[in-house]
Amino acid sequence: MGNLTDIRTGIIVKINGSPYLVVWNQFNRKQQRKPVMRTKLKNLINGSTLDKTFLAGESFEFADVSNKRCQYLYKDTDNAVFMDNESFEQFHLPLDQVEGSLPYLKDDTEVYMTFYEGNPISVQPPPKVELKVVETPPGVKGDTATGGTKPATLETGIVVSVPLFINQDDILLINTETGEYVNRAS
Q1: 45-103: per-residue pLDDT in tens?
Q2: What is the C-alpha separation between 166 and 183, in angstroms, rounded?
Q3: CATH topology of domain 67-124
Q4: 128-184 in CATH: which number?
Q5: CATH 2.40.50.140 domain position(s) in the chain
Q6: Model's pTM, two decimal places?
Q7: pLDDT digit string, tens, across residues 113-129
Q8: Chain-centre distance of CA 76, in angstroms?
Q9: Structurally, what CATH architecture does the domain formed by 4-62 represent?
Q10: Which residues of the chain does CATH 2.30.30.30 include?
């Protein structure tokens, strides 16, 4: 059990049986009133947000959350399949639970998996990934002076905006947090 001063940005608390990440907090103390901690919380399972005010003396629980290095193996019609890099145990996550990460994952990509009470709940792809261009319109000669961009479809199906000099079969470095082109991989 924690107390009011333990609540700060980045910790994970358990509310109504679900893990919530504290994404913002503000301590308030007014004259002749009990202090309170105002927070904005993000549910780590479904991504919903919650505004909650914790009162002085109100108890709460820290969530039992851990991170492990895992490997993305493949996806089928309903699930993405991962393997724990230490125990080699395989587990499935529903596609809708990992849809934000899937466009950046090729088979055998190493990821960080978040576990809540021993069960996998979310996946974090590497900060940058290398993906091959499978389709992009050719750049027009002399059109590069303006620094224009064009769409490129990558091997996982994601479409990103790239400079005009990028060609089909180029390997690109993509930022997984922003979904943006970084540069050509060497």
Answers
A1: 888 899 999 988 888 899 988 999 999 999 999 999 999 999 999 999 998 888 889 99
A2: 10
A3: OB fold (Dihydrolipoamide Acetyltransferase, E2P) (2.40.50)
A4: 2.40.50.140
A5: 67-124, 128-184
A6: 0.72
A7: 989 988 888 888 999 99
A8: 21
A9: Roll (2.30)
A10: 4-62
Amino acid at site 167: N
Instruction: Please report where in the chains the tokens 């009990």 appear, as a residue.
Output: 34
Could you tell me which of 185, 184, 180, 183 has the C-alpha nearest to residue 104?
180
Give the separation between CA 22 and CA 12, rounded to whole angstroms. Answer: 6
Phi-psi region of 108 (alpha: psi -120 to 50; beta: other; left: phi over 0): left
Q: Which of 38, 27, 34, 31 is nearest to 5 (CA)?
A: 27
3-state secondary structure 42-68: EECCCCCEEEEEEECCCCEEECCEEEE
CB atoms within 10 A of CB 111: 22
Helix (H) or strand (E) holding 95: helix 95-98
